[in-house]
Write a structure and sequence with these properties.
Distance between the termini: 36 Å
Number of helices: 7
Largest sheet: 6 strands, parallel
CATH class of the largest domain: Alpha Beta
Oligomer: single chain
Helix content: 40-55%
Structural class: alpha/beta
Number of domains: 2
Strand content: 5-15%
Order of helices and strands: EHHEHEHEHHEHE
Low-confidence stretches: none
Length: 184
């Protein structure tokens, strides 16, 4: 981390690292004065995710995420719980992002789990639902920026994990763009 701290704006702590090291890794990053994106993609009943959101807020992370498919009630309760916890602690509320459709999924994968709408339509629908519940932004493929901007406006945050170099052959993402290519 010391090698990257002056070059990285925010450190992502995902499921593998968090399961291995727990909250200690977040403390270590924060003690170095760095920001943390807690990438655990919460998805459960509304009360459980709201409580997880409170715990993420207590860790003083800069942002965390949840799955939009958990529904409006789940997202809204989590936003409210995080806001209340941050206020009670006197710290900024973390940004909350909703994962629309995992970038490792394509149209066939959606149909496999019973979603009949097109991928682009599903992303747009979930982004709008997240926007209406007070979530700060979404995690989505760079291919879907256009529909998200159309439905949620310019200020709604979009985190795009699927940016890849043209030479990157090994990839677990299905919906990517190169840094030079623009979203439709």
């Amino acid at each position: 981390m010391n090698l990257l701290k002056d070059r990285v704006g925010i450190f992502k702590v995902g499921k593998q690292l968090f399961t291995h090291a727990g909250p200690k890794v977040i403390d270590m990053i924060r003690q170095k004065g760095q920001k943390v994106f807690l990438d655990l993609k919460y998805h459960d009943i509304p009360n459980t995710v709201a409580k997880a959101g409170e715990e993420a807020t207590k860790l003083n992370v800069t942002m965390f995420n949840l799955h939009a498919l958990g529904g409006g009630e789940m997202m809204k309760k989590t936003v409210e719980a995080s806001r209340a916890m941050a206020k009670s602690l006197g710290i900024p509320k973390p940004l909350i992002l909703a994962v629309t459709v995992l970038t490792s999924m394509n149209e066939d994968n959606l149909k496999e789990v019973g979603i009949q709408s097109s991928l682009i339509e599903e992303v747009g629908r979930l982004a709008l639902l997240a926007f209406k519940t007070g979530v700060d932004g979404v995690v989505a493929s760079p291919q879907e920026i256009g529909i998200i901007r159309e439905r949620c406006g310019q200020k709604f945050l979009i985190v795009t994990p699927g940016i890849r170099a043209p030479s990157d052959k090994k990839d677990d993402q299905k919906r990517t763009l190169t840094p030079r290519r623009r979203s439709p």
